[in-house]
Amino acid sequence: MKNLINTIKNIFAIEDLRVRILNTLGFLLVYRLGSYIVLPGVNSAQLAMNHGADQGGLVGLINIFSGGAFSKAAIFGLGIMPYISASIVVQLLGIAVPFFQKLQKEGPSGQKKIERITRVLTVFVTAFQAPGYIYSQILAYSSVEGNVTFFYVRSTLILIAGTIFVMWLGEKITDKGVGNGISLIIMIGIIARLPGAFVQEFTGRVIESGGGLILLLVELVFLVMVIMANILLVQGTRRIPVQFAKRIVGNKQYGGARQFIPLKVNASGVMPIIFAQAIMFIPLTFAPYITSPGLSGFIQSLTDFGGFWYNMVFGLMIVAFTYFYTAVIINPNQMAEDMKRNGGYIPGVKPGKKTAEYIDMVMSRITLPGAVFLAIVAILPSIAMKFGMDSQFARFYGGTSMLILVGVMMDTLQQIESYLLMRHYDGLMKTGRIKGRTSLSGATAA
After folding, report:
1. CA geometry: angle at 41 spanning 35 and 45, to 5°?
2. Cβ neighbours for 19, distance < 8 A, ≥ 6 positions apart
3. 446 and 408 in contact (C-beta within 8 Å)?
4. Are strands 344-345 and 258-264 parallel, antiparallel or unpaired?
5. What percent of the chain has pLDDT over 70?
6. Burial class, 73, CB count within 10 angstroms (exposed 0-12 / middle 13-18 / buried 19+)
7. What is the DSSP string of 127-164?
8. Which of 223, 224, 222, 262 lies closest to 242, judged by CA?
9. Final residue belonging to a domain, choices 157, 177, 197
């Protein structure tokens, strides 16, 4: 406890870090307040009464990401997910379209252009998703005041403005706060739903005799084990030895030391989960416009959070996106070129093309088990529900929620520790440094 108090004192003794933490908390508070402001004209009492019984499936999962704003018909009802969807589209265009490939190679200036395109695309994605959201999640559960057409137009504009504002908050947190703003906004929405989910599970197990306190304790123990497994997934690395040639300058010797390239087992972090989840939201958007019974049943199977086909498609997409995003953020050719330029080489491997091929081979081998484990953890909530666990609490039992919580917390704590070490303070842990996803050169935090 004494070490914890000293660490907190050290954190707030650094003015820059203290200001950034306070900025982050302030921006997140604004986001949470916006999650409770209901769209004008919506009967919130009727919506809460009718919507409360239908929190399963993909709708309940979206509601967790938005911190409850989705079911409340709040101005931040669509949250940050349209921005994530737009980012996916831009990432895919970067592979297939030469114009976007050129922008990616232009450095900071090209990145700014890509960000502007992503913002504009976010507006179009939100404008497309908002009518479906209004129809399926507001009008289906509540009556509205005034003309319905006017309500559609007004609410669509408000939802677009809300998503743009949330996107702006995320960028401000990244710029003036601690951690990645978009990831923190998703994380705070997840954490906001955790206390209520635990109370429901406690009520079902203990008060309503759904297994008793012993079974609840077993669930909590297994939850701790899942958290530990997620931390291992985030921190697991494959170290490739790199030997640097000796150089004699005057009467001094430089180089000759052996270092390591820490290739992450899960170099892509939580992005495959977010990407796959954003894609799985698409059937829900199209659902109101489908009239064919056969196609409607197919769409329904892809929105059933606990169903076989949803989890099968979701798991396969996670594996595919893990390889895709790893290929985007890690460039073996660039790493081989940098090593050759600095006089480094991997023992037993020729510099240049052979080194790039070797790094690519190692990444392919370690990415497969990492991707499969990522997919297994992502579908754990569905397995937990099969054993009678409350659906709200099961979503924190591994799955997307747990992966995002662990990954984002590790990244944020690593940034805080970096500030402490730069000011010659002890880190957050005496037994070793915290390793977030950003410890690998060239990786991008989610």
Report:
1. 65
2. none
3. yes
4. unpaired
5. 82
6. buried
7. HHHHHHHHIIIIITT--BSS-HHHHHHHHHHHHHHHHH
8. 262
9. 177
Which amino acid, one-letter code, is at 363? M
User: What DSSP state is assigned to residue 203?
Assistant: I
138 and 256 share a domain? no
What's the angle, vertex CA 421, arms to CA 420 and CA 422, rounded to 5? Answer: 90
Domain hosting 333: range is 184-446
Question: What backbone torsions phi and psi does residue 51 show, to the nearest 5 degrees?
Answer: -80, -20
55 and 16 within one domain: yes
Residues 6+ away with beta carbon under 8 Å from 64: 189, 190, 193, 395, 401
Which candidate, 91, 103, 10, 433, places its Cα nearest to that of 237? Answer: 433
Residue 364 token pair: 């392919």
Q: Is residue 355 domain-shared with residue 415, that is, in the same domain?
A: yes
**How many angstroms separate the CA atoms of 434 and 417, rounded?**
8
Residue with the two structure tokens 């200036």:
109
Whether pLDDT at 129 is above 80: yes
Going by C-alpha positions, the residue among 66, 77, 68, 28 that lies closest to residue 48 is 68
Q: Give the C-alpha distances (Å, rounded to integers) separating 327 from 70, 268, 321, 322.
A: 33, 9, 10, 8
pTM value? 0.74
Residues with Cβ < 8 Å from 165, sequence gap 6 or more? 34, 76
Provide the token pair at 314: 């979701």
Q: Please list the residues that pair with 261 across neighbouring strands.
A: 240
pLDDT in tens, 184-194: 888 888 888 78
User: Cβ(251)–Cβ(234) under 8 Å?
Assistant: no
Residues 165 and 236 in one domain: no
How crowded is residue 112: how many other Cβ atoms within 10 Å of its Cβ? 12
Instruction: Using CB atoms within 10 Å of the CB of residue 207, give its burial: 0 to 12 exposed, 13 to 18 middle, 19+ buried.
Output: exposed
pLDDT digits 0-9 by tens, 195-231: 887 888 888 777 776 667 888 888 888 888 888 888 8
Q: Which residue has the tokens 């895919």?
A: 92
Q: ∠ at Cα 136 (132, 140), nearest 5°? A: 145
In the chain, the N- to C-terminal Cα span, in Å, equals 32
Distance CA 306, CA 201 (A): 17
- Separation of alpha carbons 269 and 55, rounded Å: 28
- Write the single-letter amino acid at 168: W
Token pair for 187: 């994380």
Same domain, 233 and 304: yes
List, in sequence order, the alpha helices (H) in 66-107.
Answer: 69-72, 81-96, 98-104
Average pLDDT over residues 240-260: 70
